[in-house]
TrEMBL record:
The protein's name: 16S rRNA (cytosine(967)-C(5))-methyltransferase
GO terms, molecular function: RNA binding; rRNA methyltransferase activity
Lineage: Bacteria, Bacillati, Bacillota, Clostridia, Eubacteriales
Keyword RNA-binding set for record: yes
SUPFAM superfamilies, A to Z: NusB-like (SSF48013), S-adenosyl-L-methionine-dependent methyltransferases (SSF53335)
Pfam family, one: RsmF-B_ferredox
Any one Gene Ontology BP term: regulation of DNA-templated transcription
Amino acid sequence: MAKVNTRDLVVEILLLVTRDGQYSHIALGQVLGKYQYLSKSDRAFITRVTEGTLERMIELDYITDQFSKVKVKKMKPVIRAIVRSAVYQLKYMDSVPASAVCNEAVKLAASRGFAGLKGFVNGVLRSIARGLDSVSYPPGDTAEYLSVAYSMPMWILEQWLPVYGRESVERMLRNFLEEKPTSVRCNLHQISREDLREKLEREGVTVQEVPDLPCALLISGYDYLGALPSFRDGDFQVQDVSSMLVAEKADPQPGDYVIDVCAAPGGKALHLADKLDGTGMVEARDISDYKVGLIRENIRRSRMENIRAVRRDATVPDGDSEEKADIVIADLPCSGLGVLGRKSDLKYRMTKEDEEELAALQRRILSVVHRYVKPGGRLVYSTCTINRGENEENAAWFAREYPQFAMEEEEQILPGGKAGDGFYIACFRKEG
């Protein structure tokens, strides 16, 4: 078997994301799945350089532009990906010798069909290697500094700073760039958290418990999930701690009928089914066969019978469901700016106009799905963003438009505060 060039795989993933528009977690997962035979250290290198390059891309480009006559935006996509990943290694991976980074980048340029640019790549990277300590950053008290130092687009900072203040925003930005363990939810219908912890530790996984959330664990030190018997056995579901709070706040009672209107990949719906302990029914809906397939795969692996996956467009009224549900979960499409620690490329592909369109879509969906709540039932509205236009403002709009729904609880979770992602949850009770 021919030796695989891990740096070439990094470049391939970066191109899939930055040139072809794929989501980073999907592109990385596909490549790691294809090359499962690679050593744990090779897979860790690919993951670290890919995710790090995407997380730090604004800063990496800022550095490069100080040393290159050809600005990063003017470079050919392949050369841009090679240079970005190399600059990340030079700045953030002390264990990799600078000479090796430069030499491997030059080889990549040649192997990718750009032998004529070997000298350019070599010159720029060696200049950066020598001059990293002399890079000039914007003044530390400016938004421009935050944008460069934490690789956050200015338009997002201009939206957050007046609302949350500099201290909270910088804490969030630091949190996005920190390496974190994987948050998982124990499927309590088939194994206790204590037994799952012991099983994971026997599998060589490092495990931490999450205070005040008896279904949650934080795991690290594993190669990939598919290799863990506990994952294949359906003992746990990957799910962020903040996301778990949706089912906790929904508080389903035995026998409840629950509709999750935008459910893929199914984490919250499965959590609700687990809390129902074999009673009632959770109908997990989503708009496409692909998304419904993701839900069904997770149902199959979790081995639950009180949950079903159905294809349905949440913007289209379903007359058969009117006033049938004890609980409606409306975890709606959003900008995702609360989960940038896990999906860093979202900050580059999202725009203010996109946010506004998503906020309008959320209102369209809420105006339809509230009809499914029976008198005395609950609607739980949630997003994984921290943009007020998609959160507090939409919840206030819903309360005004549909006064029969009384808001019982509202929480905005900021990244860096609790253990989980940025998240928003509002719970409404329909008058009985």
